[in-house]
Design a protein that fits this description.
The chain is 18% helix and 16% strand. A five-stranded mixed sheet has the order 1-5-4-3-2. Strand 4 and strand 5 form a beta hairpin. The longest helix is centred in the middle third of the chain and has 14 residues. 26% of the residues are buried.
Length: 171
Amino acid sequence: MTYRFTDIPDDEDEKPVKYNFNNRKYANVGKHYHRTPLFGYDYIDLDETEYSFQQQCLDNTDIVSYFMNLKKLSKLTINDLIDHSSHKEHIHFYNNPNAKIKELLKVVLKKENLRPEETPVVGQVGLYTSNKQASRSTGIKCPRIYFMVGPHAVLYILFYDPYHEINSGLV
């Protein structure tokens, strides 16, 4: 039997309790940067945008790479991830995400407006990089996973960007 994410019932009354945008104590997550990350899926895009995890191009290579990268990330503190991130490692953090990321955040966070003080630190990790230019039209992938950094060193997985379109300036 095959299941789709849409088969999972949505609980309209469910409210994530891990990340509260209106609570000032969550505004500064930096005090938890000495911890190794936990991974949260409260805000994962399963079918809200074109960067959901339900895309047909999400294949076994991407899935294996995703879990290999999560295993590697889970052994480093948030500080280590920030300090040792580079274009070679394809790990990046954005204190001020670009307009496209902010628009996508509003969708998955279900917020009409996202004030600057509410905008989380967003990161991306590259699953792998192709020597050729990534493109939907050619099917050449250079997948990135986007996440936001929450309190207590929780990295909330958000988007699957198979063609490196969300922040393509960093190719």
